[in-house]
Amino acid sequence: MTILIPSYEPDERLISLIHHLKEVSDDSILVVDDGSSEEYRGIFDSAKQAGCTVLTHKMNQGKGSALKTGFDYVRQQGGSDGVVCADSDGQHLPEDILRLTKVVREHRNHIVLGSRQFTGKVPLRSRIGNSATRMVYALATGKPIQDTQTGLRGYSSEMLDWLCQIPGNRFEYEMNMLLEAPHVGYDLVEVPIDTIYLDDNKSSHFRPLADSARVYYPFLKFCASSGFAAILDFVLLFLLQGMTSNLLVSIIGSRLFSSIFNYTMNRKFVFAKRNGTAIRKSLFRYFSLVIIIMLLNYGFMYLFHENIGIPLIASKLITEALLFSFSYWAQRKIVY
Known about the structure:
This protein is an alpha/beta fold. It folds into 2 domains: about 1-215, Spore Coat Polysaccharide Biosynthesis Protein SpsA, Chain A (Alpha-Beta Complex), CATH 3.90.550; about 220-335, no CATH class. Helices cover about 60% and strands about 10% of the residues. The protein contains 12 helices and 7 strands. The protein has helices at about 10-25, 40-50, 65-75, 95-105, 125-140, 160-165, 170-180, 210-215, 215-245, 245-270, 280-305, 310-335, and strands at about 1-5, 30-35, 55, 80-85, 110-115, 155, 185-195. It has a 7-stranded mixed sheet with strand order 3-2-1-4-6-5-7, sandwiched between helices. The protein starts with a strand and ends with a helix. Residues about 275-280 have low confidence and may be disordered. Its main location: membrane.
């Protein structure tokens, strides 16, 4: 088993973690210096002296890039066991890291997550950030997990080719991994670990605005595509309703045109795959979903507008809000 530690401008906690791991395990330790400045050279030299392999990026490329450098190195060395990734800031206990190595050996072709339980004193930004990404991941996949942002993760060697191909070079890489895993047949295993935040997590290099935008980018793209399609749907609905005074005809007509626009945007920009999902399959699935959502749309609109008497605009807004999460989950899980 290889313990992979991506590191950018670490402190002595990295060396402390390495020494503790050496005391309790014979697993090899691979450290990737992600372009740290020269003043940190002594720390990485100490890691080498402790028996670690150290790979170096000439400039900072991001955590995702550092992880892929490590995965590629293990792949080239022919490692047949697996890799457990840990952060360099002392927030993963050696005993938790070793627990993951055991679970990786028992669960081949699984992503093993060291899931924090977020009990005790947790920095507010970490608590809010993890809650938000848990919600986004549950909406995207229909499968809730405890900790989407954990840096303590394990993988068997059969997964290394796939891990090197996942898009993303910074913190979004780990979210992309979780989003893509169900589509290639990799399940998740969660292992509870201690929640440790040192100095209110001040050592983290996570940039709240820039990196959060990268993490949520797949979901934001879907929101943008759906938003433009919704505007088109709204305009056509009211135009057709004014022309025909028939709610069913108006809904069918507006949804037909807006769904063609939405399918094109989602297939090209939101759920695009490098290997490409066959147009014929995704087209059939998408418009099957359109029919289901259109029937639900009509049912809710008829209930709210015709039966209860809620104005058309308000009925439309309520209906779309109810169906938005279902549509995202179905397209991510089934269509693309």
